[in-house]
Amino acid sequence: MIQIEGLEKSFGENYVLKGIDAVFEKGKTNLIIGRSGSGKTVFLKSVLGLYQSDHGEILFSGKKISEMDKKQRNKLRQEIGMVFQGGALFDSSTVLENVMFPLNIFSDMSAAEKKERAEFCLERVDLKTAHDRFPAQISGGMQKRVAIARAISMNPKYLFCDEPNSGLDPETSIVIDSLIREITHEFGITTVVNTHDMNSVLEIGDKVLFLKDGVKAWEGSKDDILNSDNQDIVDYVFRSSLFKKVKDALRKGV
Amino acid sequence: MIYGLFNGMGTYALLMLRVFRKPERWSEFRKNVWREIDHLGLDSVGIVAIISLFVGAVVTIQTALNLEDPLIPDYYIALATRESIILEFSPTMISLILAGKVGSNIASTIGTMRVTEQIDALDVMGINSASYLILPKIAAAIFFNPILIIISIFLGLVGGVFAGDLTGMISMADFEYGLKLGFIPFYIAYALIKTVIFAFLISSISAFFGYTVKGGAIDVGTASTAAVVNSSVAIIVANYFLTDILLS
């Protein structure tokens, strides 16, 4: 479980996060949504420690990051998997080497065990044939799957995904969403996903956190959105004409 | 401008403090050093060889043309060529060329990793990205650049021998005699000491500009240019102080 208490972050005079509280539970996919500039990425990077927050506490499994020493922080980082927006795969390494990378650095497995673990992770994301190819030689969807395989290679307790569906076609987006949900439930991971994809919200949003102008404007499950009193979240999720029709149909019980 | 200079130097110093840390895993570090030696060192042998061979030839011809005095023996052409190549051309000029070739490679590689979030990925994994990416490059440059300079000195002198012989300005026997005349072995040490320091400047300054890139492709290009310009200026300035300290 991850708890966030009063998280604040500013860049000079620009206050991006204005005291956000949130709880992300184990075994659930927690989605962060909001318009561009609402603070989603800064929120995610602050929780990950890539940005130093100004105020607030972040607790992983009840332990405050601010009270951890360097060794504990490094251990925590090894329990975190991250899927970046562009995949962030290492260009000069093959698909298999990318997935083996965290194992090479942190694990004491033998070379054969590392390879076996990496192959298991690649098989788990349905990539069995691209082991020897470089990231530039595979499609965007495959790159995202490799990134997920790399993220789960160390058996993480926490999985963070920044816009995992950006730049992907609808069919591949559904595959990635399903994969994230399955992995979360299968391995009991606390998953936090930043997304703009409303399909993802309605498909895998065990918990949805809606950010607006750096504050938490709403939170609930995907099933709560339709009947929410908060017009902002309803308008945001059901903004496109297609989603408006879906909303109307759902309300009429069609 | 002054603030920017000191701010940049401070950031560079802080980055170097992060770079010179114990690697996460020595086996991975060794593997990375060998890969960098291949990328940054072995790939530069060709350009260093061609430039050294022809510049050695040109130095010999120009020296011969400027020493057209019957009272000055021909072997002085070889002596002057030797001193020019060992003291200045090979360590300094070749380092400047490497600042262009290797420096831009380092800055653009690390800069691209920064803008495509590959460095963030390392940080999230709990890896000291500065040390993981930069230390092998510095180690490879410090180890291999002196080898490049030795090759450059040798080929520069070979170029001089052949140019002198082919143009009839100095015979091979005179050239050989001139090369040995009054040779000071410390000059080789001087050239190698300069090379090691220049190698550090090239690799660390270029890595600094790449590592601190913010933005996109244009910014990577700008950082690459800044890396070459700044490491070249650093080499020239350091050359003055090193010459003063080591040869005075």
Brief synopsis:
Chain A has 254 residues and is α/β, with parallel strands linked by helices. Chain A folds into two domains: 2-79 and 156-252, P-loop containing nucleotide triphosphate hydrolases (Rossmann fold, 3-Layer(aba) Sandwich), CATH 3.40.50; 90-155, no CATH class.
Overall pLDDT level of chain A: 88
N to C succession of SSEs of chain A: EEEHEEHEHHHEHEHEEHHH
| Largest sheet descriptor of chain B | none
What is the ordering of alpha helices and beta strands of chain B?
A: HHHHHHHHH
- Model regions low in confidence, pLDDT < 50 over at least 5 residues of chain B: none
- The first-level CATH class of the largest domain in chain A is given as Alpha Beta
Q: Which pair has the most extensive contact?
A: A-B, 23 and 15 residues
β-strand amount of chain A: 15-25%
Structural domains of chain B: how many:
1
CA-based gyration radius of chain A: 19 Å
CA distance, first residue to last residue of chain A: 37 Å
Secondary structure: helix percent of chain B: over 70%
CATH architecture classification of the largest domain in chain A: 3-Layer(aba) Sandwich
Walk me through the structure.
The complex is a heterodimer of chains A (254) and B (248). Chain A is of the alpha/beta class and 254 residues long. Chain A folds into 2 domains: 2-79 and 156-252, 3-Layer(aba) Sandwich (Rossmann fold); 90-155, no CATH class. Helices cover 41% and strands 24% of the residues of chain A. In chain A, the strands form 2 sheets. In chain A, strands 6-7-8-3-9-10 form a 6-stranded mixed beta sheet. In chain A, strands 2-1-4-5 form a 4-stranded antiparallel beta sheet, covered by helices on one side. The longest helix of chain A has 18 residues, at 170-187. Chain A is globular, with a radius of gyration of 19 Å. In chain A, 41% of the residues are buried. Chain B has 248 residues and is mainly alpha-helical. Chain B has one domain (24-247). Chain B has 9 helices and no strands. Chain B has helices spanning 2-19, 26-41, 45-66, 75-115, 118-124, 129-167, 172-180, 186-211, 217-247. In chain B, α2 runs parallel beside α6 (129-167). The radius of gyration of chain B is 21 Å and the shape is elongated. The model of chain B has no long low-confidence stretch (mean pLDDT 94). Classes of the chains: A alpha/beta (254), B mainly alpha (248). At the A-B interface, α2 and α3 of A face α5 of B.
